Amino acid sequence: MSKEKDGVMIGLECHVQLNTETKLFCGCRTQAEEPNSACCPVCLGHPGSKPVLNAKALDYALKVAAALHCEINKEFFFSRKTYFYPDMSKNFQITQYEIPIGLEGQVVLSTGKKIRITRVHLEEDPAALVHEAGMAASNFCLVDYNRSGIPLVEIVTEPDLSSPQEARDFLDQLTTILSYLKVYSATTGTLKADCNVSVYGNSRVEVKNVTGKKGVEKALSFEVARQKNLLLNDKKIVRGTRAFDEKTMTTKATRTKETEDDYGYIVESDLTTIHFSKEEIKKMRENLPELHAAKAKRFIKDFSLDEYTANVLANNFTLGNLFEEIAKETEPKMAAKFLTRELMAVVNRSDLDLDSLQLNPEEISSLLRILSSQRITEKVAKEAIIAYLTKGTKPMQFIEKGGLAKDLTEADIEKAVEKVLSENRQAVADLKRGKQKSLNFLVGKVMKLTRAKVEPRIVQDLIYKKIKGG
Prior knowledge:
single chain, alpha+beta, Arc Repressor Mutant, subunit A, 3 domains, nine-stranded mixed β-sheet, three-stranded antiparallel β-sheet, about 45% helix
C-alpha cells in the first residue's frame, strides 16, 4: 500500500489491445467496419466450440511482462471469469486469475518515481455495447460482437500513484514502452483503464472503462475532487463502481463494488497449461529491443545531446527513429533542435498523430541541409514543415514553388530596408524614442517585401545601422 495514507491513492488496471491480425482464441480478424461481421462460434461462445490460443498474442504479452521487469511465471494457465451481461454471450470471459504471466514489475515515471506493477496477464475483450442517439432513455441497447475475443494485455499497478497527473505520466511511459515493443498501435488499438481511487484513507471507488490517457487524467481529476468535497461536507464515501461521462466531465454510480469471489473463477479446461523453461525466459529477455530510457542515454553519449532533448526524442518511438535517420545526413544537434521544437510544435498544435504521418527522413534532411547552408531562412523552414505535416507538400517542392530560396544580394536587402524606412517615418521616429514594437513592425514590413528571404536578425542590424547613420 502507498505510504500516503492522508492523501490521494490511485491504482490503475490498464487494458491494452494487442496489435494482432486475429483474435485471441479464434481466427476472426480484429479489424472490421460492419457491426457483427467478424465473429464466429468460438468468440460467440456457441456450444461445442473450442478456443485455440493465438501464439502471437502470447508472445506479445510475454514481451510486455519482460519489458516491465516482471518475474515471469514458468507455468501459467487460463480461467473462466463468470458473469452475466450482454457484452459476453457465453456468460464468462477467458482470462488469467490464479497465475498470471508476470508478477511484481515496475514503471519509472519521468520524475524518477517507481510505480509497482502487481501483475500482467492476458485476456479476451468483451463485446461492445452501443447506445445510439435517441436510445439513452430506452431500456435496450445494441451489441457489436466484433470486439468480442480481441486480445488484451492487462497491466495492474499497486496504488502508488498520488495524482491524476502522475497517472497520465504513467500511461505516457507505458504506451512508449508498448510502442517500442511494437505490440500496440495507438491508431488502430484501444487503451482503457479501470481507475481505483481513494482519498485520506477512505473507501476505494473504481471508475470503470475510461478510454485513453487524457480521459483517465480527466476522470481522476473529477473523482478526486468529488471525494474530497464529500468529506468536506461530512458525507461518507461509499465503495462502489462508477462510470465517467466525457460530455459532462463527471462520474456517476453504476453498481456496488464486487469482489473477486463474486466471479466464481474456474480453470479453463479447453486450454492447456503453458510451460516455459528458464532458458526460454532468459532468451526472451535478451531479445527485447532497446527501450526509450536506454535510447535516451545513447543519444546523450553518441550525439552529445542534453538530457531534456534526448528524452523528448526517445520518449516517442517514431520521433526517435526519425532523428536517427536524419542525423546520418545532417548535423545531429541541429536535427534534434528542429525536430523537438519546430516539428513537434506543429504536431501538438494541429493535434496530429506522429505515428500515422509516415514521414520521409530524406525530405526533412534535405530541408535541414539547405537551412544550414543559409539558402533559406528559419521562417521558411518552419513554413515548409507545416505544409509537409498538414498538407503532405514536400519541403523542397514548397520552397521551389514559392520561390522562397534566397536569391537576394546585399544591395537588394539594403534597398528593401531603405524603402520601408522611407515609407514608415512615424515608426522610425518611435524606434528612435526607444519603442521596441516599432522595430518589430519595420522588420515585418521588410520580411514581407523580401518574401522572407532574409533572416530577421540581419534586417534588425541593418535598420539600426541606417537609423544611426541617418
